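Researcher: Here's the sequence for the chain we discussed earlier.
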Amino acid sequence: MSKKILFFPDVYQEQGHWLPAVSLAEALKNRGHEVAFMGIADCKAIVEPYSFPFHEIFKKEYPFGYTKTHQHRSVSERWKPVHLWNIMNGGLDELMSRVNPDLIISGYFASLETLLIRYKYNKPFLITTTYLRHPDDDPGIRGIQNLVGMSDAMSRRVMESVYSGDIPSDELTVYQFVKPLETAMELVPCPREFEFSNYLFDSDLHPETSRVKFIEPCVTRPITESDTQVGWTEGIPADKLSGNRILFATAGSQVHDYKDKARRWFQEMILMMDLQGMQNYHLVISAGSELIKEHWKLPSNVSVFSWVPQLSVLDKCAAAYIHGGLATVKECIYKGVPFVILPLGKDQMDNALRVRRAGIGEVSFAESVSCTDLQSLFLQATTNTWTKARLNKMKATFEEMETARPGVQLIHDFAENL
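Model: Thanks. This is the structure I predict for it:
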């Protein structure tokens, strides 16, 4: 039976949180479900190329262009409770009435928002966690962190405005309030084999009845018109494209959070391309909307873009230099591209350790790496037979799970049983 499924990957515009949802949504649509997304205006550009219905929310709080205007704020300053008042005061009433979803699939970083929607509209939900978290940092903890970050009066008002359970309002604690987040099914779009083996989740102890499910990497998605119109291949000799002699460098979609580190790393990459032996390769840099504006002195074997269709570029790659965001790590593994991680911040440090422990790539430091270091890392990544064998084994696991789509089956079964 077809169900109406509404995705809410994140409040903010972070491609790494939205694109796995696109992959799941496409597969669910192919199974006959009616799929749509909701988010702020800036997120429409992520979903629109895939032809999914998009419902704009929080229009007053986050007008179009908000992401770019506020991109220089620190990460800790970005989450603001202003949109919670919108939910509490009925800002989603019309949408929930008109769309009337059977199921909401929310992102980990919208856990508290989804909890309010669950209480207010009595909508079932699942959580997708698009980064690899510590076992203790479940969605309930995320909700608690948001609540205790407010004043006591504000958090009390948030809870009392939507809670309709059996606990008297003056006795309700944040721990009791977030209980639905702690019992909801949580899908982690990454095979368990890439996670730290010493991290124990309930799926390791009770796989059949577990709440946390490690599912397919969710890297495949339809090719869009925007992918084919970027023109990143223009000016690159045909032999380098057909011979997989492209080197790729990216600092991710949130490069503005660590622009100075990324600038230095890209400059060293450009210098590397003048070293002996590198003339046989062509470097493609995805620099982001800010760094693309800077004056780069480029040799003929370097091209710099604001954005490129990453999966298409990886198909032509000899090696990739990446920041270590989980989405890009997964894409390199899935494509079997030798890679070097130069973590810049956030969860990238932990992902670099995961790569090192798994023995599937090289790791260095963006703030100190030199052009000669980068060349040596390239040679190590592409010639170390042990590393290549480990990478190919992980690639096979990713391919198998992406074909089997266990996460899609879990969502389908959950929705069918509502």
